[in-house]
Amino acid sequence: MQGFQFRQACMEALDELPGYDWSGIYRLEGDTLVLDAYVGAETDHTRIPVGRGVCGTAVAQQKNQVVEDVTQLENYLSCSLETKAEIVVLIKKDGAILGQIDIDSHRRGAFGPEDEAFLSGLAELIAARWES
Ligand code: SME
Fold it and tell me: Which residues' Cβ are closer than 6 Å to ligand 1?
């Protein structure tokens, strides 16, 4: 399995994990993140400029983001009023950002270093099978 089909299967697997209430991938196209495979509620944020929200900040800073409480953030794009915590892990190939894995949780403080490490491993698998 390759490309979008693999990414969608990964998001479906993540959706089974406790506390993973919205699981998705954004592709980086120029200066814009474009919603790709996802499982969860529909979101208005299908295109996010680099620098906007948690997702755009991850690209601007070239750094994964782990947010314990999104209600404390000013630069946040709300998908659901139920969301309390968010993690964004970059997907890279040869140092270049291809996109990111974005997970929302309804539980404050849901994500920690174990989630970041686990999702970083998954991001490598996804990067290796990026082309569809
Ligand atoms: N909350 C994100 C937007 C994407 S949704 O969570 C699906 C952000 O602040 O960038």
Answer: 22, 24, 43, 45, 48, 53-56, 76-77, 79, 86, 102, 104
Residue 129 is encoded by which pair of tokens?
Answer: 């099978």
In which region does residue 9 sit, left (phi positive, over 0), alpha (psi from -120 to 50) or beta (all else)?
alpha
Best CA proximity match to 79, nearest among 112, 99, 102 = 102
Q: How far is CA 38 from the centre of its chain?
A: 9
pLDDT tens digit sequence for 8-26: 999 999 999 999 999 999 9
Q: How far is the CA of 100 from the centre of ligand 1 (A)?
A: 11
Distances (CA, A) of 87 to 1, 5, 32, 132: 26, 22, 19, 25
pTM, full prediction? 0.97
Confidence tier at 79 by pLDDT (50, 70, 90)? confident
Question: Is residue 107 within 8 Å of residue 85, measured between CB atoms?
Answer: yes
d(CA 73, CA 52): 12
State how far Cα 9 lies from the chain centre: 15
